[in-house]
Amino acid sequence: MLKWILGGVLVLAVVLGGTCWYGYNQVIAGGDTAEVVMASTQERVFASLVNTDSMAAWMETTDISPPGRDLVPGDTLRVRGTLRMRGEIGTKVDGAADMQWVIRDIQAPSLIVMEMVDDSVGRAVMSRRDEISVRNDSVVVRSTFSSELMDSVRTAEADSSRVAGSVIGGVQKLMVGGARMMTQAQLEQLKARVEAP
Q: In sequence order, which residues have a C-beta less than 8 Å from that of residue 50 and are 6 or more positions away?
């Protein structure tokens, strides 16, 4: 009987480990760039990416400040993502994640560069570069992510421990992959908005 129980636990552990490995590979498989092609003008897409009221409309699950104007370099864009879940007994759980993006560069109508800043670390955690270009009769938005902070931490840890460097590298890939997936979904929402009749 004990062999059956241990065998079942082993099978469960292998299935769980395989599922986690599959999920990790799905997140990191897309690399560091989200790209969406839109049937619109470059100016309209750019305006949708720099105007906070427009951003609040197509980024459905966020509360964006400062409201009502176009972003300029030096602005801090505060994005509040909300999570709402209902429990089995009818209780509602609200959660929120604040992200602060500092606008570093804007070159109308083709480039927006911003950095996600974490107050506890005191420096940029991740960078995002949005390039808006024209391809034939469409507009292409490419959002590329990088994490200089994680690169520097991984380099420092790799000097002291190979395992620590590998773990931090995996965390960096997850962080960049997750940001890419979230941005891909948001850009698809923007596409639906600008292509709507």
A: 70, 71, 106, 108, 112
Letter for the amino acid at 193?
R
The answer to whether residue 16 is domain-embedded is no
Contact (CB, 8 A) for 97 and 84: no
CATH code of the domain covering residue 101: 3.30.530.20
In a domain, 87, yes or no: yes
Parallel, antiparallel, or unpaired: how do β-strands 33-38 and 62-65 relate? unpaired
pLDDT at 154: 57
How far apart (Å, rounded) are the C-alpha atoms in residues 129 and 134?
16
pLDDT per position as a tens digit, 11-55? 899 999 888 888 877 877 878 899 999 999 999 999 999 998 888
For 3, the token pair is 């062999």
Question: pTM score > 0.90 for this model?
Answer: no
**Total domain count, the chain:** 1
Alpha helices (H) along the chain: 2-29, 42-50, 52-58, 148-160, 162-195
Q: Mean of the per-residue pLDDT values for the chain?
A: 81
In a domain, 17, yes or no: no
Residue 83 has pLDDT above 50, yes or no: no
Rounded CA-CA distance 65/17 in Å is 41
Query: What is the length of the chain?
Result: 197
Report if residue 1 sits inside a domain.
no
The domain of 172 spans 27-195
Contact indicator for 79, 62 with CB cutoff of 8 Å: yes
